[in-house]
Specification:
The chain has helices spanning 2-12, 29-35, 38-54, 80-87, 103-114, 129-138, 152-156, 161-167, 169-179, 247-262, 274-284, 301-304, 308-313, 329-338, 344-347; strands at 92-98, 122-126, 143-145, 183-187, 191-193, 207-211, 236-243, 290-292, 320-322. The protein is of the alpha/beta class. It is found in: Golgi apparatus membrane.
Length: 356
């Protein structure tokens, strides 16, 4: 009888055997009676609840969160397939991919999106647990982590699987979203929205993107993939993309992953996946419907922050500003401040995350 009870308990609660409160197989009748007293049952129930909640923590690296935040652990198993229907609007999501050092930029970007009333569609793909928990604690359901979390060392060893995962992360995450049937807008978080970009996604093309070249184009420029430059390929930015959940967009993501596998990796290039993206676009151009977004609306930072005359000429046409063509958090922050785009100083309350 008592061994039967033990067996059943083991089946229903795999943790039982690890803890001293599990009844030993030689349980005497006194103990058996005490097991069924209401207080013992209550205690056992609470222990099961407590360990059931705590158990996912077991293989998390220590020091990531404090014991005062037990509720957050439920996000550890929150999946992309659960997150997408939660945030999507009309089958479309807005996605960014980031780790903890970028949280301030995330918040700045979110304020600008909230001003366009598009914040509900935002899904943060967290690259570490700290980011996953921080965002979901403030804004439940809006961050997801797609395992595995990469260990920096493994990720940087050229030729290793970790290396492949590291470089191919962005197209892999985006491909997964497309495969699950959602359209996706991807943004780097060193961006600020000045207007809603969705009205600019004209027609029914597979992949929409922006040019990273600083050369000024006429306002009525072509929406085709620009011709190759000096390096034999165009200079399309992998920083801002809109992908429809079509075979064409999926093909571009697959080719991007392939190109990244062919590329030699170096510490100086870091996670620069843009050349591979451009090779992929060129190779897929015949089969896929591509669309270059207007330069005046989506200028590269190399143009917007460097040519006052152009900015004045195109006033009122700007939609998303990208703080690129500059390296380092401090320099980026200062430049956003100089141009009145560091919204975090005075408008943090507008972010769904609040002040971080
Ligand atoms: C919803 O998506 C469809 C197809 O992508 C589009 O035609 C329609 O305009 C969208 N509706 C809204 C309200 O955005
Ligand atoms: C690389 O990604 C694959 C697929 O997601 C995963 O199974 C594998 O464990 C990862 N390897 C490393 C070293 O990160
Ligand atoms: C843009 O407009 C100019 C004249 O205003 C015209 O010559 C040119 O062909 C147009 N370009 C495109 C791509 O439509
Ligand atoms: C800056 O923009 C103006 C106006 O479009 C243009 O005429 C000029 O050539 C640009 N300057 C540079 C350095 O690109």
């Amino acid at each position: 009888m008592s061994s039967l009870l033990h067996q059943r308990t083991s089946i229903h609660n795999p943790f039982t055997n690890q803890f001293p409160f599990s009844p030993p197989s030689s349980t005497n009748s006194m103990k058996r009676i005490s097991i069924f007293s209401p207080i013992t049952l209550l205690v056992l129930l609470s222990l099961i609840v407590v360990f059931g909640v705590f158990s996912p923590w077991v293989d998390i690296p220590p020091g990531i969160f404090s014991a005062s935040e037990p509720a957050i652990s439920k996000w550890r198993h929150y999946t992309l397939a659960q997150a997408l229907p939660f945030v999507a609007n009309n089958g479309t999501v807005i996605v960014c991919i980031l780790s903890q050092p970028y949280l301030a930029f995330l918040n700045n970007w979110l304020i600008s999106i909230t001003r366009q009333n598009r914040q509900d569609m935002v899904l943060v793909i967290a690259e570490d647990y700290a980011t996953l928990y921080k965002v979901n604690e403030r804004w439940p359901g809006h961050a997801v982590l797609i395992p595995p979390v990469l260990d920096g060392e493994a990720a940087h060893k050229f030729g290793s699987l970790g290396f492949f995962n590291f470089t191919a992360r962005r197209p892999r995450h985006l491909l997964q979203i497309l495969e699950l049937g959602y359209n996706v807008m991807y943004n780097d978080v060193d961006m600020v929205w000045l207007a809603d970009p969705f009205p600019y996604l004209e027609g029914n093309h597979d992949v929409y993107f922006t040019d990273d070249m600083t050369t000024i184009k006429p306002l009525n420029h072509s929406h085709n993939l620009p011709p190759p430059g000096k390096k034999g390929r165009p200079y399309i930015c992998s920083c801002m993309l809109f992908l429809r959940s079509t075979d064409g967009a999926k093909l571009v993501m697959k080719k991007w992953i392939e190109e990244l596998q062919l590329q030699p990796w170096s510490r100086t290039k870091k996670s620069n996946d843009q050349p591979a993206f451009n090779w992929a676009l060129m190779k897929a151009a015949k089969e896929v419907d591509l669309y270059l977004l207007p330069q005046a609306a989506f200028p590269t930072g190399g143009l917007y922050f460097k040519n006052k005359t152009w900015v004045k000429e195109t006033k009122g046409k700007h939609v998303i500003i990208h703080n690129n063509y500059i390296i380092g958090f401090e320099k980026k922050t200062k430049r956003f401040r100089d141009f009145g785009l560091w919204l975090l100083d005075d408008h943090a309350v507008e972010s769904p995350l609040g002040r971080l």
